[in-house]
Amino acid sequence: MIINSAEILSVGTEILIGDIVNTDAAFISKRLAALGISQYYQAAVGDNSGRLRERIDEALSRCDLLILTGGLGPTYDDLTKETAAAAMGRRLVMHGESLARIKDFFVRMHPERGMTPNNEKQAMLPEGAVVFRNDHGTAPGCAIADESRGKTIIMLPGPPRELMPMWTDEVEPYLSRFTDHILYSKNVGICGLGESAVEDILHGMMLSDVNPTVAPYCGEGDVRLRITAACRDRDEGERMCGGVIDEIMKTDVGRFVYGIDCDLPEAAVRLLIEKGIHAAAAESCTGGLVAKRLTDVPGSSAAIEYCAVTYSERIKAEKLGIDPALIAEKTVYSPEVAEAMACGIMRESGADIGVGITGVAGPGGGTEAAPVGTVYVAAASRLGVKVKKLTLTGDRQHIRYLASNHALMMLIEAAREL
Amino acid sequence: MIINSAEILSVGTEILIGDIVNTDAAFISKRLAALGISQYYQAAVGDNSGRLRERIDEALSRCDLLILTGGLGPTYDDLTKETAAAAMGRRLVMHGESLARIKDFFVRMHPERGMTPNNEKQAMLPEGAVVFRNDHGTAPGCAIADESRGKTIIMLPGPPRELMPMWTDEVEPYLSRFTDHILYSKNVGICGLGESAVEDILHGMMLSDVNPTVAPYCGEGDVRLRITAACRDRDEGERMCGGVIDEIMKTDVGRFVYGIDCDLPEAAVRLLIEKGIHAAAAESCTGGLVAKRLTDVPGSSAAIEYCAVTYSERIKAEKLGIDPALIAEKTVYSPEVAEAMACGIMRESGADIGVGITGVAGPGGGTEAAPVGTVYVAAASRLGVKVKKLTLTGDRQHIRYLASNHALMMLIEAAREL
User: Fold this and answer.
1) Residues A315-348: pLDDT tens digits?
2) What is the residue extent of each domain of chain A?
3) Between chains, do B18 and A26 touch, taking CB under 8 Å as contact?
4) Conformational region of residue B282, where left means phi above 0, alpha means psi within -120 to 50, and beta covers everything else
5) In the CATH scheme, what is the code of domain B182-260?
6) DSSP string, B126-174
7) Positive or negative CA dihedral for B6, B11, B15, B19?
8) Coil, helix or strand for A271?
9) Predicted pLDDT of residue B218
10) Does CATH place domain A264-417 in 3.20.20.190?
C-alpha cells in the first residue's frame, strides 16, 4: 500500500471559536511534505459527531491517509475515536497496555486522587489499531489501515507537546513503509529586494513542472525562496538544491541573499563569529529590537558585548558623545545623526562594527520633514560609514521590524567587507 | 439579509506544506464568535484553481458567509479573486482607486523602480464588490454579496499585518449590518499567579451559564481572564464586564492584576507616564528584550530615555560601574550583580527606577551553581532595591521572555510604590 495524498482534519470547537491557533496542522504539514506525501486540502470541524462523520467520509473519498487531531480526551465531547472507528467499520475495544499507562500517569501526577473513571475511555481504541504511545500525556494515538480500500486513518492527541513527540517517535517510523521518495527543501533568505522583483529576475526558474521547484514567499520584510527537490534521499536532495542555489547566486538576486536555511540575525551572528569580530548597535526608534534579535541567537555573546537604547537626545549626547549642536542643526531624524550614532557606539564599545538607527516609528512624532516611517540606518567600521534612508509603511511594530531588518543587512554588508 | 453561519477557507500552498501557521483563521474565528456568527467548519486549500473552485462551491452550499484569505497577490499562483468571482457569476474589472493606491505605494517604497506590471493584477476586483482598503500592503480586500442566493464572499489578503487591521477597520463595520447582537469582552491581565491558582480563587464566577462569562487562558508566562458579555451594544457590555472586574479586584487575585485590556509592557509604560517618572533597564541574558517590549508601546519615549544591553563583564564594569571584584567574588549570575546592574543603570540614566537582569538563557553556558534557566531580576528606586531569583524552564526564547515578564512586573511594583 502506497500513500500518495493525505489530509489533516483538526477536531475541536476551540479552533472554530479562535481560542487556539492550529499549530498542529502546520507541524504535520511540514513533516508530510518532508516525507513526500502531498496534501491538497486541510480542514477543521467542531466537537459534533454528525458533522465530523460527514467530513471523515468526504476526506476518505479523496485521500489515502486521513490524519485526525484532537478529540481523544476523557470528556463527553471527545468523539474522534468513536466516529472514525464507525467510518472504518471497526468497534472500540479496551487496550490493556494503554489503560495501565494512563492509571500509572494519574498515580504519579495525583497520588492522593488516582485516576477518575472517565479517563478509562481514553484507553478504548479501534479494534486492530496500531497504538502510538503518549509519553507526555494520557491519550494514546492510533492508526487504522484498511488494505482493501487503500485507506488509513491516524488519530493524534491535540496538545502540541503531546502530538509533536508522538509524531516524531511513533508516526514517522509507521509511515516510512508507505512512501518511496522524499521532498528535500532549502530556504534562501533575501533582504532588500521585493517578491515581485525577485520573481522578475528568476522567472525562468519558477516553473511548476521542474525538479527542484523554486517558490517565493514573503517573510516580514524579507523574501524567502524555497527550493524543493523530489529525491531518493537527503544527499541527493542536497546536491539538487545546491545546484539551483548556485544558479541563483549568479543572478542579480545574489547580492541580496543573506543566508541559506537561517534568518537574518542568525546570518549576522554566524558571519561575525566566523570573522572573529564584534558588533554593537545604538538604537533609537527600534528601542532594543536589533539587540534583542541578535541576542536571540545562541552563542551571540561571542559577537556582541554592548548595545545601547539611546531614546532621548540627552542620552545620545551623554552615552554616544553626539554633539547637541549637530542634532539641533540637522534634527534627530537625519543621516548625520544616524552616522554619529554608529560611530559613537563603535567607539564606546570598542567593537569592529557600529550600527546606528534613528527615525519615526509612529504612530505619533512625525514631522513634515520626517513623516512616520522615515528611518535612517547607518553602519560604521574602520573602512568608513554608510547610511541609508528608509521610507517604511505599516504600524509601529512593523516599521520597527523592517528598520531592524535593514540594520541587520547593513551589519552583514559591513562585516563582509572586513 | 442575516448571516447565521460562516466558514473560513484559507488559500495557499504554504499552509499545506506547513511553511506558515494559520494565525489568520484563529483571528477571524475569534472575531466571528464575538459578532455572534457561528462557524461549523474551516478549511485550507492550495493555489490550484480547480480545487479552490470545488471548495468554494461546497462551502457556499453550507454557509451564508464564506471568508477567503490569501491568494490576492501579484503572482501567477494568486487565483482567489478570479475563482471566487467565477463562482458568484461575476467578472473582474479594474478598480481605479485601488490601482492608484498600489502605484503610489510602489513609488513611495521604490522611487527608482516604481510598480512592476504584474502588480496591476491586484487592482482587478469583482464587478460590484465592496472594496476594503489595504493600509499596510498592496492587495485590497473585497466583499461580493448575492442577495437573491443569500450568500456573501469576503476576500482578504493573507499577511496577518494586512488582514488584521483590514478586518477591524473595514470588515467589521461591513458585517455589523448582518447581525442583531454582539459579544463584548474585556481582558484582565495577571502576572505572578498560575492559572489553577486563579481558577481556585475565582471558581464561583467561572460558570458557563452566567452572563458575562469568565474564562481563563494562559498567555506566555501570564494568565488572562476573558470577561464576555452578550449584550445589545458596547455601552451595555462595558457596564456588565465592569461589574465583574470590580468583583475580581476584591479577591486575592486583585494584587496580581497588572492591567485591563493591555499587556504587561503597556501597563508598565502607562503607569510610568501617569506618575511622570522614568525607568531604565540594564540587560544581560534578555539582551534588549525588556527595552524592546517597553519601546513597543507608542509614547514610551515619555518614560524611557536609556537602556543598555551589557552582555560582557567588561561592559558591565565600564558602562554600569560594577566592581569587577564583585563579579569575581559572587559570579556574574548572582543577586548581588543583578542589584548592582539595577542601581548602576538608575545612576547612569538618571531614571527613577532601574531594572537589572542577569542569568543563563541557554542552551549553553549553564554552571552547577547556575544551571540554564537561573535568572536574577532586580528593581531599584530611591526607596531601595529588590531582587528575585527565577528558576525558569523551556528553550532560550521562552526563558528570555519569562525573565522579561518578571522584570516588567517588578518595574510595575516599584513604580506603584513611588
Assistant:
1) 999 999 999 999 999 999 999 999 999 999 999 9
2) 5-178, 182-260, 264-417
3) yes
4) beta
5) 3.30.70.2860
6) ETTPEEEP-SSSS--EEEEEETTTTEEEEEE-SSHHHHHHHIIIIIHHH
7) negative
8) helix
9) 65
10) no
End-to-end CA distance of chain A: 57
Separation CA A314–CA B304 (nearest Å): 12
Mean pLDDT for chain A? 92
Query: Cell numbers 443569500 label which residue?
Result: B150
Looking at every residue in chain B, the average pLDDT score rounds to 92
pLDDT band for B209, please (50, 70, 90 cuts).
low
- Place domain B265-417 in its CATH homologous superfamily: CinA-like (3.90.950.20)
CB contact under 8 A, B75 and A17: no
- Which among B16, B136, B349 has CB closest to A42? B16
Cβ–Cβ < 8 Å for A67, A28: yes
Reduce the DSSP state of residue A280 to 3 states and report it. strand
Residue of A nearest to B108 (CA): A391
State whether B299 and A395 contact (CB < 8 Å): no
Residue B318 contacts residue B385 (beta carbons within 8 Å)? no
Q: Which H or E run contains A230?
A: strand A223-231
pTM check: above 0.80: no
Are the Cβ atoms of B304 and A315 closer than 8 angstroms? no
Q: B280 or A137, which is more confident? A: B280
- CA-only gyration radius of chain A, Å: 27
The string of pLDDT tens digits covering residues B240-295 is: 999 999 999 999 999 899 999 999 999 999 999 999 999 999 999 999 999 999 99
Chain A residues with CB under 8 Å of B20 CB are: 26, 217
CA distance B151 to B223: 39
Q: Which region among A204-213, B58-67, B146-155 has the lowest average model confidence (pLDDT)?
A: A204-213
Place domain A5-178 in its CATH homologous superfamily. MoaB/Mog-like domain (3.40.980.10)
Among A159, A156, A187, smallest CA distance to A170 is for A156
